[in-house]
Amino acid sequence: AEIAVVGLQASGKTSFVNVIGSGQWSEDVVPTVAFNFRKVRKGNVVLKIWDVAGQPKFRSMWERYCHGVDAIVFVVDSIDRDKFETARFELHALISQPSLSGVPLLVLGNKNDIHGHTDVQGLIRALQLDKITGRPVSCYSCSMKSQHNLDIVLQWLSSRSH
Ligand SMILES: Nc1nc2c(ncn2[C@@H]2O[C@H](COP(=O)(O)OP(=O)(O)OP(=O)(O)O)[C@@H](O)[C@H]2O)c(=O)[nH]1
Ligand SMILES: [Mg+2]
């Protein structure tokens, strides 16, 4: 399956790819410039992953990397409520692109190892995920640090392969 990982800066996209790619968790990850590409083998599934940068100047590139993938993974920092509104805006702007119609969407509420994080119900409300139609949409709360829920995330991604 080919997957694009997008979301605001510091939400944990590169951490996600590192953890599922090599099991490697680190506190210091450098902010991504443009994108990284990585191939990850899980059982008999190969995931081709575009890890795209989240800083504002890179967001106009998201659509290009999402075009033609089997799934879009949108990572949210579930502790950083001040950024939910921007995340909602960027997510809806992205998926409203005609070129991305119907592409399955997985929203990850990351950093749930931190006390006070927003749960799945809160994320669905804050990001208005219930307004998204015409594609499969799932939302999980997870942590790259503790690896909580990464098994179901991988299962979801593997089921997108053909
Ligand atoms: N506590 C905690 N910190 C996390 C988690 N995931 C990522 N981080 C931290 O969040 C910071 C940003 O992580 P990155 O993976 O670089 O974020 P990114 O989304 O790739 O950022 P850009 O490349 O700038 O778009 C790093 O300091 C990580 O260690 C998590 O699950 N829990
Ligand atoms: Mg990154």
UniProtKB/TrEMBL annotation:
<dbReference type="GO" id="GO:0098852">
    <property type="term" value="C:lytic vacuole membrane"/>
</dbReference>
<keyword id="KW-0732">Signal</keyword>
<dbReference type="GO" id="GO:0046872">
    <property type="term" value="F:metal ion binding"/>
</dbReference>
<dbReference type="InterPro" id="IPR006689">
    <property type="entry name" value="Small_GTPase_ARF/SAR"/>
</dbReference>
<feature type="binding site">
    <location>
        <begin position="110"/>
        <end position="113"/>
    </location>
    <ligand>
        <name>GTP</name>
    </ligand>
</feature>
<dbReference type="GO" id="GO:0005525">
    <property type="term" value="F:GTP binding"/>
</dbReference>
<dbReference type="Pfam" id="PF00025">
    <property type="entry name" value="Arf"/>
</dbReference>
<dbReference type="InterPro" id="IPR027417">
    <property type="entry name" value="P-loop_NTPase"/>
</dbReference>
<feature type="binding site">
    <location>
        <begin position="7"/>
        <end position="14"/>
    </location>
    <ligand>
        <name>GTP</name>
    </ligand>
</feature>
<keyword id="KW-0479">Metal-binding</keyword>
<keyword id="KW-0460">Magnesium</keyword>
<keyword id="KW-0342">GTP-binding</keyword>
<keyword id="KW-0547">Nucleotide-binding</keyword>
<dbReference type="InterPro" id="IPR044154">
    <property type="entry name" value="Arl8a/8b"/>
</dbReference>
<dbReference type="GO" id="GO:0015031">
    <property type="term" value="P:protein transport"/>
</dbReference>
<feature type="binding site">
    <location>
        <position position="32"/>
    </location>
    <ligand>
        <name>Mg(2+)</name>
    </ligand>
</feature>
<feature type="binding site">
    <location>
        <position position="14"/>
    </location>
    <ligand>
        <name>Mg(2+)</name>
    </ligand>
</feature>
<feature type="binding site">
    <location>
        <position position="54"/>
    </location>
    <ligand>
        <name>GTP</name>
    </ligand>
</feature>
<protein>
    <submittedName>
        <fullName>Arl8a protein</fullName>
    </submittedName>
</protein>
<comment type="similarity">
    <text>Belongs to the small GTPase superfamily. Arf family.</text>
</comment>
<dbReference type="InterPro" id="IPR005225">
    <property type="entry name" value="Small_GTP-bd"/>
</dbReference>
<dbReference type="GO" id="GO:0003924">
    <property type="term" value="F:GTPase activity"/>
</dbReference>
